[in-house]
Amino acid sequence: MSECVYQGSFNPIHNAHIEVAKYAHEKFRFEKIVFIPAFKPPHKNLKDFDMDNAMHRLNMVELAVSDYPYFDVSAIEYTRNKPSYTYDTIVQIYDIIKPKEKINFIIGTDAFIKIETWHNAEELKKLVNFILFVRENNFDESPFLKLKQKGYNYDLMNMPFIDISSSEIREKIRQNKDICGILPVKVAEYIKKNNVYKI
Fold first, then answer.
1. pTM of the predicted model, to two decimals?
2. Which domains does the chain have, with CATH numbers?
């Protein structure tokens, strides 16, 4: 059974993340989908790195997936005190588990369209098969087909677009607005209990 990973900031993890992973599990019959929270997201300003936030994000992912036997969480990026480049993580996973097939990597179309700007992208594309989920309305696959021609192999999940934004959730929490229905219950309880995202 091929491996499938789902890397992201998960700041916070929300119901759309879970639905994407459930859809991938059902569509591709992955035995396990491993969530990998980014310890130090490279696209963020590292001067603003917040260790408390990093630990909260990991804890929330663990809570969110705890009810799903086919989900798992890896803190692999928390063992490296440097920017969480996907290429480095994938190489480390290969070293640890030595998969027989390419690792599958779940990614949104909004991130994938910028894949050529990623660290060691030319090497990364040799190591993973991308599993795309749509992050926009009126999706046009044409630009992505051009990436496929360049060797960025992918499979497209034809699931409906779910418009949930982690940044909008954080803003709602700061403004004490209702977040019911957009976060896993355990995550919402954790945020309230630990006063996460409050200024």
1. 0.94
2. 4-163 (3.40.50.620)
